[in-house]
Amino acid sequence: MHEDYRVRFERLQEGTLYPLLEPAEQDFIRNIAGEYRFTFQELRQVITASRDLSMWSEPCLEQWWPDQEAAVGLSGRPRKKELLRLLREHLQALRRGPKRYPPQPAPAPKRKPYRIQVTSTERQLFGRCPVYSEDTVCCGLRTLDAVARCAMGCSYCTIQTFYGEDVVIEADLGRHLADIELDPGRFYHIGTGQSSDSLLWGNRSSLLEALFGFADRHPNVLLELKTKSANVGYLLEHPVPPNLVCTWSLNTPTVIAHEEHHTARLEQRLKAAERVAARGIPVGFHLHPLIHYEGWQEEYAALAGMVLARFAPEQVLFLSLGTVTFIKPVLKEIRRRGMRTRVTQMELEPDPKGKLTYPAPVKQLLYRSVLQAFEAWQGRVFIYLCMEPAPVWQSAFGFSYPDSRAFQEAFAGYLQSRR
Fold first, then answer.
1. In this structure, which topology does domain 116-417 adopt according to CATH?
2. Tens of pLDDT, residues 264-319
3. Alpha-carbon distance values, 140 to 120, 143, 318, 383 (Å)
C-alpha cells in the first residue's frame, strides 16, 4: 500500500465498522483499499458488505472478491467500479433470495454485561407509543417506561438503540404514577413493554406492585404487561386488577432459536400464558415481527394451531400482527452488535417516512396467511395490525378503518365489552 494512502486509510476508516471486523477481513480490506484507492463512500460500502456477509453466515468478502477479480477484464477505475457494482448485485441477490436458517442455530451470543440501577429519576415515563405515526392506522397505545433497557438479546431489538448500557429501574415509580393525569371519562390502553420486557424483572423494587395499584386506581385503563419471558410468579401469587392483560410476543421456534436470544422458548411462553389464563387473567398475543424465510408458512400455521388448541377465545383479549420495520439508526446498531441474523438480509424498502420495511406484496402474503391460520378466532378475538397504513389493512383484511380515531374507538368499545 502506498505510504500516502496508508495514512489516508487510517483516517477514512474512522467512524466505520472496520474495527469490529475479524482481523483477517480487516487485512484483506486494507489491501484492496490500497490497491483500488477506495474513497470514503466506497470503503464504507465494502466494510458494510463485509459485516453483512458475516452476520448472514455467508462466505466472507475475502473468499468472494478474488473470483470476481479473475472474471473482470477491465483495468484502472472502470475495473474498480465494476467490482463494486458486482458486490452490490451480490448483496441484492442474497436479499432477494430465500432466507435459510441452518437446522442447528449458532450458540447464542454472550449476554452483554449490564448493571441494574434502581434510582429515582425525572424521566418522562408516560407518553405515546414510540412508533406512533399519523400515516398508519394506530391503536393509540400509551406507554409507561418504568424500566429502561432490556437484558434479552433479540437481534432486531430497537430498545438497545435508544437506551444506555445500564438497566434503570425507576425507584420512585409510585410518585410518577400518582402524577399522571388521566381523563376519567376516557378509555386508555397503556403498555409497559416498550422500553423493557414487562415481566423480566418480576416485582423487583415493588415494580409490579406499583403498576397494579395504578390499574386499581384507574378502572378506565387497560394495563398491558408484554413479555417474552415465563416469569409469571407474581401474577399467580397476588391479586391482579381486573383491568390488566398479560400478553406474549410469539414467534416460530426457528425465529426464537436464531433471532430471539436469552428469551423464553415458545413452549415456556405458552405454558406461562396458560397458567395466567387459568387464573382468570386475560391474555393476548403479538405475532410481531413476522419473518419471511424459507418454511415460514408452515411454521406460522403450526404456531397458530398450537395457540388455537390451548386457548379459548374467551381467554384471549386480542391478537396483533406486525412485520419487520426499522429506522436507520436501529440498523446501524444491529450491525454494530454484529450477531448472526437473517433479519438484516430481508429485502426492505423505505416507506414514505423513510422507515425500512417489507415490500407490500411480502406483507400481504404474510398477513393473509397468518390471518387464515387464525380464522377460527375471527369475530371472537380482536385482531389488528401494528404500524401499518390503511392500504396494508385493506390488502390483509379486505377493509380498513378510515383513520386511527375510528380504529381506537372500535378497539376501546370491544375491550370494554369484554370486561
1. pyruvate-formate lyase- activating enzyme (3.80.30)
2. 999 999 999 999 999 999 999 999 999 999 999 999 999 999 999 999 999 999 99
3. 28, 10, 15, 15
For the chain, what's the residue count?
A: 419
Asked if 358 contacts 96 with a C-beta cutoff of 8 angstroms, the reply is no
Q: Count CB-CB contacts under 10 A for residue 39.
A: 13
* Helix 23-36 with 61-71: angle, nearest 10 deg: 30
Question: Computed from CA positions of residues 264, 278, 233, 143, in that sequence, does the dihedral angle turn out positive or negative?
Answer: positive
**pLDDT tens by residue, 366-395:** 999 999 999 999 999 999 999 899 999 999
Q: Where in the chain is the domain with CATH 3.80.30.30?
A: 116-417
Edge-to-edge order in the sheet of strand 126-128? 126-128, 142-144, 188-191, 221-227, 244-250, 283-290, 316-323, 382-385
Please check the confidence at residue 156 and state whether its pLDDT lies above 70: yes
